[in-house]
């Protein structure tokens, strides 16, 4: 087992703590006046440009953070991940989402075996199946081609693929490939989500993809059984094998469910759920919708950042710089949240995906060796596309709490519009705010400026902006499948860097287990009370009272009732 020494006990950590006071005395207005500093606080890779000059940091801060990375053995930890060593020690697993998008000739080992050929075997199978499906050769029970796909999964089996799908929908090349098709996702066990996911769909032309590694995930399997019944009630039991496929490794349960095991697509224990969008979890439904060539471009984009992360010096390594700055903001400046603000509606599902990716990875209270941490890890991630967010929560980030912000912009819009007679194009109007908001946060507005503008005295306190609120800007050249893959990989590795520095395990998620365990007890109680009239017992007074209220109306289950479509 690795040493149980905590990073916060190192001299490098203490040097950063001592450095905080000098930074807090310096306003971003003054830091931004140093052109050489601003120029130095940038990094670029394949046209992706990072400007972090609006962080509350100096060149000295960055030097100290790089020394902290050295103390945390960041380079060695990254190398271990890429070599397939079992860095997820609590589950004794490798962490190899990078292998999911590696080139065919790459060598990435787990347990001494190169996993890349197996990954490509699954991708080749997806390519072949998606081409058969999209050509119309795969037909349903009544002989009709299938044009609608409902992907059933939850957590990482839902949020990542939904983010990519939403981003691709308005990319011209991807949209052309998706004409006449629909891809929907069913995640929540709430029957409302079932109703929404199949609204206006015809079972005759619908394929259901059930995504569950073990084929036992409670919510996913209940939803899968619900859609199975929807198909059977319309087309008969023999239709299941034509209208349902699986992403799973449990071929026995797949077969028992009624799905042909030949139509099950594998993924592996070394792929964490929230890192699985580049596996069959995401690649299969996305390939059915857009075609495998589009999805392969997405994977190649992610792979390009993998290589940049693995091989670039830390001084110009975008994921490393982002991860170190996040550690600085959380652990030293005391900012517990991060706003993800993409100035692109196509990225509207980025923040929800990063919420899971970040908060499930780094929301830990002990070190990787099980030592309680005397410091906070992880961030509260939230966000909304600009300019919608400006009319929602920007009031708070300008004049309320200090929340570091990620501004993400795109040079070339997926859907450019320019109206004759307008001052600027629609995209330029959007991007005007992308460039203005970081400066507004950094510089603020002083009472002296307001006095010079003849603002009434009683309004001066209300219109004063203190500024000194950190942000960073990430500018992408376009938003094609390739850049979407790059953006995903940047955030995946940034989050891993934070965990590596904090000395935690960013690849397990034991915190989700307790609630699920307690829910199983409630499930048994609900069944007993509904079906056998058993009294509520074995719970605390509050939960017992709530359950009694919930169970009060006598509403026996009717298994024949399905959502209307």
TrEMBL record:
Keywords: Cytoplasm, Gluconeogenesis, Glycolysis, Isomerase. It comes from the Eukaryota. PROSITE patterns: P_GLUCOSE_ISOMERASE_1, P_GLUCOSE_ISOMERASE_2, P_GLUCOSE_ISOMERASE_3. InterPro entries: G6P_Isomerase (IPR001672), G6P_Isomerase_C (IPR023096), Phosphoglucose_isomerase_CS (IPR018189), SIS_dom_sf (IPR046348), SIS_PGI_1 (IPR035476), SIS_PGI_2 (IPR035482). GO terms for cellular component: cytosol. Coiled coil: none annotated. One of its GO terms (molecular function) is carbohydrate derivative binding. It catalyses: alpha-D-glucose 6-phosphate = beta-D-fructose 6-phosphate. Its main location: cytoplasm. It is found in: Cytoplasm. One of its GO terms (biological process) is glycolytic process. Pathway: Carbohydrate degradation; glycolysis; D-glyceraldehyde 3-phosphate and glycerone phosphate from D-glucose: step 2/4. Its EC number is 5.3.1.9. Belongs to the GPI family. Homodimer. This is Glucose-6-phosphate isomerase. It comes from Panicum virgatum.
């Amino acid at each position: 087992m690795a040493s149980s020494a905590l990073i916060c006990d190192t001299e490098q950590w203490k040097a950063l703590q001592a450095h905080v006071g000098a930074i807090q005395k310096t306003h971003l207005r003054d830091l931004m006046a140093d052109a050489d500093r601003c120029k130095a606080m940038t990094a670029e890779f394949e046209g992706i440009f990072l400007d972090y000059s609006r962080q509350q940091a100096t060149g000295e801060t960055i030097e100290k953070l790089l020394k902290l990375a050295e103390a945390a053995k960041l380079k060695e930890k990254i190398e271990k991940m890429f070599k397939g060593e079992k860095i997820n020690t609590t589950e004794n697993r490798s962490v190899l989402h990078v292998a999911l998008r590696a080139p065919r000739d790459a060598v990435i080992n787990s347990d001494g075996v190169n996993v890349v050929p197996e990954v490509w075997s699954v991708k080749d199978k997806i390519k072949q199946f998606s081409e058969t499906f999209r050509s119309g050769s795969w037909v349903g029970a009544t002989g009709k081609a299938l044009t609608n796909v409902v992907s059933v999964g939850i957590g990482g089996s839902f949020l990542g693929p939904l983010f990519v799908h939403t981003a691709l929908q308005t990319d011209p090349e991807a949209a052309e490939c998706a004409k006449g098709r629909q891809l929907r996702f069913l995640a929540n066990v709430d029957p409302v989500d079932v109703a929404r996911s199949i609204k206006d769909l015809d079972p005759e032309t619908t394929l259901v993809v059930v995504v569950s590694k073990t084929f036992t995930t409670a919510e996913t399997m209940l939803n899968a059984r619900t859609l199975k019944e929807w198909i059977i009630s319309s087309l008969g039991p023999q239709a299941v094998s034509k209208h349902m496929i699986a992403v799973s490794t449990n071929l026995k349960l797949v077969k028992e469910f009624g799905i042909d095991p030949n139509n099950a697509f594998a993924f592996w224990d070394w792929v964490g759920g929230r890192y699985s969008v580049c596996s069959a979890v995401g690649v299969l439904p996305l390939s059915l919708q857009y075609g495998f060539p589009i999805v392969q471009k997405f994977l190649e984009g992610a792979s390009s950042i993998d290589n940049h992360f693995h091989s670039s010096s830390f001084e110009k390594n975008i994921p490393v710089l982002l991860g170190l700055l996040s550690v600085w903001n959380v652990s030293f400046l005391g900012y517990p949240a991060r706003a993800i603000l993409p100035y692109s509606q196509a990225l509207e599902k980025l923040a929800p995906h990063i919420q899971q990716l970040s908060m499930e990875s780094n929301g830990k209270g002990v070190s990787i060796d099980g030592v309680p941490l005397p410091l906070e890890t992880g961030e509260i991630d939230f966000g909304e596309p600009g300019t919608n967010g400006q009319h929602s929560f920007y009031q708070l980030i300008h004049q309320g709490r200090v929340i570091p912000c990620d501004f993400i912009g795109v040079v070339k819009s997926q859907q450019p519009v320019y109206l004759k007679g307008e001052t600027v194009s629609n995209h330029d109007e959007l991007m005007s705010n992308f460039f203005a908001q970081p400066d507004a946060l950094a510089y603020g507005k002083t009472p002296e400026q307001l006095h010079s503008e003849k603002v009434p005295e009683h309004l001066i306190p209300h219109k004063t902006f203190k500024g000194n609120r950190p942000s960073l800007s990430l500018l992408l050249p376009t938003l094609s499948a390739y850049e979407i893959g790059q953006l995903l990989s940047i955030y995946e590795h940034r989050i891993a860097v934070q965990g590596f520095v904090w000395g935690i395990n960013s690849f397990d998620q034991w915190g989700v287990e307790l609630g699920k365990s307690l829910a199983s007890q409630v499930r048994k109680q609900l069944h007993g009370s509904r079906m056998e009239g058993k009294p509520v017992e074995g719970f605390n007074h509050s939960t017992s009272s709530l359950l009694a209220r919930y169970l009060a109306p006598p509403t026996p289950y009717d298994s024949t009732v399905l959502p209307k479509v």
